[in-house]
## 1
Amino acid sequence: MRKGIYFLLCIVVTTLLLVGCSSNKEAATEAVVKEFATKMYTLEDYKAVDMKKVNLEYPKDQYTNEIKTIATEGALEEIIVDRTKLIYIDYLCALHINSKITSITIDKQTSETDGSTLYSYNAKLKLTYVDTKVEKEEEVLGQLTLNKVKNNWVITKFNKVDVPTHAIKK
């Protein structure tokens, strides 16, 4: 009888540990995806951006450096080569738009044997045309691969990063 209770107690404790560890992983990886989306798509005040300076400093500008903290060098190279962040900021500044995320949903797609995990995100943006006070909602989709490097979850590949160009057109 005691062996049965001990065995059942061991199973319950093991299950709780596994559930707790996986929920910590999910929370940590989702935080990285949210942080990336926020850094990628938020521009509080387009007037504060000096595009000449950003273009001269690129890829060592403040906007690329923000992403550097949550991505590996290889992943950062992808975003630099594609110039995705630079193009997005340039659009916003040229059309006098402020942008912020209103909501984001994150879905775990697959886990690989190498420890990496593919996540998809769907972010809803509020684009505010400062000159006309017009607000538009826009949705962007993206996919990121995350992996644990030195005990931190970081982006190892930018599989897909959208720039909402059709809503930006007046």
Note: Strands lie at 97-111, 117-129, 134-149, 152-161.
## 2
Amino acid sequence: MRKAVRRAVVLVACALFVLVALPTAVRASGPILTPILTLTGRSSGSIGSTVTYAYSWDATACSTAGVIAGDTVILVWENSSSSEPIGSTLVAIGGIGGSCAGTVTGRVPGDSTTGDTHVSTAYVQNASLPIGGSEATANQGFFVTPAPTPTPKPTSKPTARPTPSPRPPTSSTSAAHHGALRDPKGAQAIATASGTHPGDAGGPPHKGAVITSTAPITGASSLLAVIPGGWFGLGIAAGVVLAAGVAATLVTMERRRFARMYPKESRRGHR
């Protein structure tokens, strides 16, 4: 009886060892069948920033799936409303660890939602067709930061214009004013001649001044006023007179030269 119990305990212990220990050892030493996508670059940035991921898949698994040299790893940006490829690279088969791997880089597209974290995916493509089982999801998302708000430029305050100072009265106005004060009779006579009187209608006398300034036109000013065109017309007239004098001198000289060369002809002409 005791021997049967011992045998049963040993069998149960062996069964537990097979069920627990062997699968653990197989998983530890066996290939990774699921592809891995790891974020290796920066984890945040604005629209247009660069994102970098490392894609890795077990060589046996990817060979079984039909991955060959020349296939491409496609990086896909996942948005809330759509997904779009943002980068690609050729897959490298073998190497250290015996895997199908590739480092792929892309840029954050312009239609990304700012202030949100986007988790990208990747897959292996063969002749423009995705290979089944090659899809991988990134281990970490990329946070898209909002664009910085531009700093408003300070507005310049308008500069106050200086108030023009009052000009002193001119000499002619002051002289007329002083003359009116010195000669009240003359001012009264002028007012009477114009039809007004200081005592009309019992009101205060009306003050008025009419200043007329005339300057005689003399010298060069009167000459330029008579000649049409001013200085320009005077220059043309002087040029005409000078040309006429030169022409007359040339004609006289030519006649004298002709008289010396042909004295007989010149005598006949006088006759």
Note: The first strand starts at residue 36 and ends at 39.
## 3
Amino acid sequence: MPKKNASECRWLHGWHHSRRHQPVYWSKKKIQRHIARLFRGRWIPDPTYQHGAILGDREYYLPHPDEARTIIRNSHLDAQDYARFRFDCEDFAYVLKSHFCQAAYRKKRRQFAYCFGIIWGEELWTGRAAAAHAMNWMITCDGDFLLVEPQSAEIRPLQPATTGDRRVYLLIA
């Protein structure tokens, strides 16, 4: 799939200092196609969701990885304590998503929200059998789909599917 402005994204060093960087935007449909390819065979079948993803906006801004890391680092969620049933995995994911929403709101020159959301699934982080877990996801300006563990501020690529039992329950942006 061709990546709009990908070469500019890859060559950026210190995204916030560069005047050459052009924002990269993808349409909702392009993101859904990208996600559908990445998650083929992983969705729990449900006719309610198109491609298993719910994307509320018509277009999204794909951040440079350094820009995303800055927002994640400034959230300080990795310093928060896990509290079972009170502030657990999905709560961490909601709060980190809200930091990206606030960052988009503050950057008035941006036209659209960050391509950053919440995902629920099994085996996404480790590639091993595990209970369902909520975390965050993003697509960066070079088209990479990355997972973010909001409890530790770690960022990793999606693990390749090697078994038939990996399942994604819900992915929203």
Note: The helical segments are 6-11, 28-38, 65-75, 89-106.
